Structure formats: C-alpha cells, structure tokens
Amino acid sequence: MFFPHLHSKNHLGTLAYAAAILVLLQVWVEQVSAHLELYHNVEVNFTETAENGKVRLYFTIHAPELLVGFEKAGAEIFDAQWLRSRSDEQFETLFERGRKFVAEKFTFKVDDGEAMDLSSKLHFTEPDIIRKKSFVSGVPVGCILVSAEFKLEKGARHVEVTLSENAGKRLLLVCNRKGAFPEVHDMDTGAQVKLKIPVQQGEKK
Q: Residue 99 is inside which H or E element, if any?
C-alpha cells in the first residue's frame, strides 16, 4: 500500500502505526467476510477510473443461500466440492437468481442519475472453470464472485450505493482507489453512501 505522505525518515513511527492499522483492518475484514450469514460483501473498484473512466463492481455471493435457502445455508457447511458438483441446470439457476439478488439488494447511481440496470453487465465465471480443482476464486468457499463494469462520463463526481431495506443483512462495502488506503463502510439495511470518484485524465480537479 502506498502512502506518499509517510515516505520520510521522520515518519518511521507513523509508518509503523499505519502498518499496524493495516494488519488490524485486514483481520477485521477477513472476519466479517467469513460471517456470510451476517454480511453482504461488495467492492467498488476505482483503480482504473482516472485513466479510462471505468468502474468495476465485485459481489461475493454465498451460493447456498440462492440454491437451498438462507436458513439451511447458515445451518450446514457447503464447501468447494459442493459448489463444484452442481449441475449445469443448477448453475443456470444460480446465475439467474444471482442477477435478481444484485438487482433487489443493491442500487447504484452516478450523481443525480437514475439507478443503473446492471443485469446485462454482470459477469459470472463459467461452470466448467469453477469445477476445476485448480480454480482459485479469491472468495470464501461455497461463494461465487460476480463482477460488473461500467464507464463514467467525464465530470461525474460520486457513485451512490444504497442497500435495500429488505436486504436481510448488513453490507461490508469496500472502495478501492489507486495508491490509496481502502475505504470501508459497514452499512445497515436502508443505508446509503456516496463514494467520491477519482478525477479523470483531462479534467480539472
């Protein structure tokens, strides 16, 4: 992680403090992510926005909740083998319900615009890839990582994220920007957050 204001011999104590905070935050995020029955997990990624105006969204979806129901998903253990052994029909159902899940739980707006329809932008990993034992998704076992990408018009200032009143769980929202410390929001149902968009190339700050 890059902290330009800490790169000085006079800031060794501050650097050590920042490193400790980083470790604590990482542990906290990992703990929260592990409690899938308590939290939804979403990342808004601005790391390329300044260069090309693109924003990437990542949704960690606990697959058992969509296939067997929330109560059973929380009471039993569903490992990587369970997910790999799903049939093509079950994966088709999972992806269909995943699109509905994203649409019902989260709303994304740019500035004062209308809520975005992400259904056609969502990308799911192919079942044949998920079934490979060598496949590493980067999310907890039994989960799928769903992504979406959209491009901003120059001059856009904020992405507004809203968690539905009927989301059923809190939201751990992480915003990543190039060369910056992750911005983490622990959101209750019905809550709303505005994320500042990095200035794009050619724009005035």
A: helix 88-105
* Mean of the per-residue pLDDT values of the chain: 83
8 A C-beta contact, residue 107 and residue 193? no
pLDDT class for 4, splitting at 50, 70, 90? very low
> Is 39 within 8 Å of 170 (Cβ atoms)?
yes
Domain borders along the chain are 1-34, 38-196
Question: In degrees rounded to 5, what are phi and psi of residue 85?
Answer: -85, 5
Residues forming a β-bridge with 183 = 175
Contact 144, 131 (CB under 8 A): no
Q: What is the DSSP letter of 114?
A: P
Q: What is the pTM of this model?
A: 0.80
